[in-house]
Amino acid sequence: MISCSGFLTRSALPRAASCSPVFGVPARRQRIWSQRGLQTGKVDKKLVEKLPLAGIRVLDMTRVLAGPYCTQILGDLGAEIIKIEHPTRGDDTRSWGPPDAPYVDGVERQFPGESAYYLSVNRNKKSLGLSFNNPTGISILHELVKKCDILVENYLPGSLKKYKLDYETLSQTNPSLIYASVTGYGQTGPYSDRAGYDVMVEAEMGLMHITGERDGPPVKVGVAVTDLTTGMYTAIGVLAALYSRRDTGLGQWIDASLSDCQVAGLANIASSALVSGKKDSGRWGTAHASVVPYRAYKTNDTNIAVGGCNDKLYGILCEKIEKPEWRTDPRFITNALRVKNRDTLDRIIEDVLKTKTTKEWLDIFEGSGMPYAAVNDIQGTINHEHVLARNMIETVDHPGCGPLKLVNHPIKYSRVEPKIRTPPPMLGEHTNEVLRELLDFDETQIQDLKTQKTVA
Fold first, then answer.
1. CB neighbours of 11 closer than 8 A, spacing ≥ 6?
2. Which of 113, 290, 292, 385 has the smallest set of CB atoms within 10 Å of its CB?
3. Who contacts 137 (Cβ-Cβ below 8 Å, separation ≥6)?
4. Which region is the signal sequence (predicted)?
C-alpha cells in the first residue's frame, strides 16, 4: 500500500527489499507510475484523500517548544507521532501553568490540569510514558526505532550516546532513519555544549538588539520566535530528507540549531550589514528604517498601524486624515524627505490620529487601498472575524478536560486539509496502545513494565 506522499507504508515494506531498505519499488518506476496517473487522470481516490505524510511514523524525543513544534507540524501533515515522555514528570511544559485547562473527568492527577503551554504544541500525537535510564527502556526505544521513519530529539550534543540512542548507533539498526537533532548551538563549534534557550539566542544572535523602541532598551520578541523558527526549519529539513530518501533509500542526520536559524532569520538586516560593512541602524520600534510613514500610532483609545509607504499611499493617507496639503509640503514630498523629517511627520500624523478612536479610523480607511490595521491584543486576535472565518481556532474534545479551543494548522490544501485530528495527549495515554500494537507486548508484560516503573 502506498501513501499519498509517495512512500510505502511501514506495514507494506518487504522484509528484504532488493533495491533499498525502505522501498520495494525503484524510484524511477514510481515516477513513471505517477506521471502515467497524471496523464490519464486515473488517480486512486483513496490516495488523494490521505494527508501528505500518512504512513510516516515519527519517534518524538523532544520537550518544551522548538522540537515539539517541529513534530506537531509533521503530525498535522498526517504523520503518526509517538511522543516519549518521562513516566511521572512528562514534558517539562506540563508543569508550566497557570493557566491550565482543568480536568473535568473527576480523576485526581499530579497536575491541576493540562497546561496551556503544553496544549499549544502537542496535538496529533500519542504519549508513551517511558524511562530509558535502564536497559529495558533503552531496548524498547531501539525496537521502536526499527518501526519509525523519523526520530527528532533535543538533548545536548552527545548526551544520548551513553544510551546508544545516537545517530551513529541507530543508523546501523535502521539505515533509512531520518534523525533530527535540535539544539541551541548545533553539534559543532565553540558553543555546542551550551544549553539552548530562546531569549539567550535572541540576545546572542542579534534579534534582541534590533527589537524595541528607538531610544529604549533591547527587548525580546513577545513569543519565542527563535524556537518556533527552528521548529519550522527542522520540519522543512525532515521533509526534504524524506524526499531524498525516495531515491537513495537512506536516511541522514539533520543538525538544526536555534543559533543558526536565528542568524538565517535576520534576513535583509544581516544582508544589509554584509553588503555595507557598517553597523546596523538599531531599534525602530514599530517604525521602518527606510520608509516613512510606516508604523503604529496612538489613537483616541488604542493604536493603529498605517503604511503610507510610497508616494501614492502617502497621498491617500493625507486625503483620508483630511490633510491634503501635506502631500505637497516640501518637507514631505518624497520618501527620502519624509525619512529625513521623520520625527516631525510622525508627530503631526499621530496628533491627528489621536482625535478619533481606532474603530472610527478603520471605517475611514476601509477600501482606500492603503495598508492599515488595528493593533489587537491576543483576545482580539483569537476572536477576530477573519481568524474565525479561516478556521484558525478549532474546538476539540479532550478526554480529561472536555471541550478545548486550540489554534489550528495554518496551511490550507486544495485536496485534503491538515487539521487537529486528536487533542494533545495526557501523560502516558497511549503507552498500552504503542507497546501492544507496535511491539506485540501482551497485557502481562505491560503490567510488569509498569510495576518496574519503566513505563506509565
1. 1
2. 385
3. 130, 131, 454, 455
4. none
Per-residue confidence at 2, pLDDT binned at 50, 70, 90?
very low
Phi first, then psi, for residue 41 (nearest 5°) are 80, 5
Q: Are 70 and 152 in contact (CB under 8 A)?
A: yes
* pLDDT band for position 207 (cuts 50, 70, 90): very high
Q: Grid coordinates standing for 321?
A: 486624515
2 DSSP 8-state letter: B
Residue spans of the domains in the chain: they are 47-277+398-452, 294-374
Give the closest residue to 207 by CA, choosing from 156, 258, 277.
258
User: Each residue of 269-296: pLDDT tens digit?
Assistant: 999 999 999 999 999 999 999 999 999 9
Closest CA to 128 of 114, 145, 141: 141
Q: How confident is the model at residue 108 (pLDDT cuts 50, 70, 90)?
A: confident
Q: Residue 364 is inside which H or E element, if any?
A: helix 358-365
Look up 227 and say whether it is catalytic: yes
Amino acid at site 361? W
**110 band by pLDDT with thresholds 50, 70 and 90:** confident
Q: How confident is the model at residue 111 (pLDDT cuts 50, 70, 90)?
A: confident
Q: How many CB atoms lie within 10 A of CB 376?
A: 15
Cell of 165: 540512542
The C-alpha cell that represents 309 in the structure block: 509607504
pLDDT at 453 over 50: yes
Angstrom CA distances, 202 to 211, 363, 455, stand at 10, 38, 37
Question: Apex CA 398: angle with CA 75 and CA 76, to 5°?
Answer: 15
Active-site residue among 76, 149, 198, 227?
Answer: 227
If you count them, how many residues does the chain have? 456
The reply to whether 47-277+398-452 and 294-374 are identical in fold is no
Question: By C-alpha distance, which of 53, 40, 50 is closest to 239?
Answer: 53
CATH pick for 294-374 out of 3.40.30.10, 3.30.1540.10, 3.50.50.60, 1.10.3720.10? 3.30.1540.10
Domain at 47-277+398-452: CATH code: 3.40.50.10540
Could you tell me if 139 and 164 are in contact, meaning their C-beta atoms sit under 8 angstroms apart?
A: no
Residue 373 amino acid letter: A
